Amino acid sequence: MKKNVITTVFLLSTITITFFYGCKDRNCNEVTDSDFLKSVCPTPPMGWNSYDCYDWRVSEREFKANVDFMEKHLLKYGWEYAVVDYLWHIEDTLAQYEINDLENRPIRHRTLKYSNGGKLLDPIAIDQFGRVLPDPNRFPSSKNGKGLKPLADYVHSKGMKFGIHIMRGIPRKAVFEKMKIKGTNYTAADVAELKDTSIWENSMFGVDHTKPGAQEYYNSLIELYASWGVDLIKADEIMYPIFHKAEIEMIHKAIVKSGRPIVLSLSLGEPQMFQAKFLQENANMWRISGDFWDEWDQLLKAFVLTDKWSFFSKDGTFPDADMIPFGHLSLGDKPVGKSRISKFTWPEHYTLMTLWSMARSPLFIGSNLPTSPDSTIAFFQNEEVIYVNQHSQNGHQIYRGWTDNTIIWIADDSNSEDRFFALFNIGEKEQDITFDFELEYLRDKYKIRNLWQKKDLGVFKGDFKAKLPPHGAGLYRMSKVK
User: Fold this and answer.
1) 34-62 per-position pLDDT tens digit
2) Rounded distance, CA 304 to CA 326, Å?
């Protein structure tokens, strides 16, 4: 139903958001922050993000090409979000977007130039209230004040959802020019924290939550995005190197106030464990690592991080192991390394998808889909593997053998009494890996199904053994024989 009034109730230091729906006596159900987050995305979000292939230079045409590919090949498997990653407000005046080959496109550096007095010398798209707008060169449908709504409408017409990246804070240009914050008498200069800047991107200042107008700025920002039809916001430079708790809270409150079910994704990690409860109460997904690329050492580290954070995964809020770097990456030799097909071996492909699924990490593909191999796309089309990511519970590591290079995970099926287990060979040689059922006191007979092969393997009691290649994995469903 349509929300008529939004009331915030503070109880025992826990913010409870109460939604009064259209009912005569206003005696309606109360919805907590946790309920709100769960209603936005009860299962891990799945989709595609432009960063791993286009860095900050994706154009509307290129974005739509990936959306079209998703609709045709991936949507039916649950891949529904399409996300424009960072700096879509920087006007890339050097780019020749009629050139189809990104490798030959002129490059403009993302770092903006300022005068000694603080005046911005490079063009960015921004409105009168200090809110960044899309670059009209890269996103021609945004002209005449339309913003990203036409692009969101295009994504929605495909039955999909639309997401954007934002840099935490308020534009330096808005601060220098003292632009008004919408609906207030305050300006950007009144709420900016001039000492709070990003170490890797220079278009923003932080927002000082203690200043009047700070929450109103974020409210106006999310109001704009909601009017465009945005379904996911990836807020960047918000957990590392400083954990910006106050700005996370302001963005979350602004999303709730907007009335639109927007997924809040926080980037990048690694946060501290004591912040887990706060993250569960304020975000749908949060990064647990730095930027993840197609390197075996990084995948090895992901085992440690996902094991550490698996306890905090629950419906509506998910630790995020980062994007999946399969397929065609770094077009135009950006953002990391040369243009290439993922360096992960085929066994490592199975390992990553199995671990991300058992850990219930959000699943976001990072490659340029139209130019990725069919064999890569097939990894995203196994509905039995995806089911584990979407519908398992309590996934966690139960064994790691430091001498035998073996890792075992287990999880519950939320819709039955079945369980899932995953076997990983992190060593450099092919080996047999055995799951001793006594590790989990599983003393009955079980029918085992190989989910990657979609093949029933028979009935087993006591243990299960599989031969796995170096850096390889197996994913299985076990059903008790009654």
Assistant:
1) 899 999 999 999 999 999 999 988 999 99
2) 21
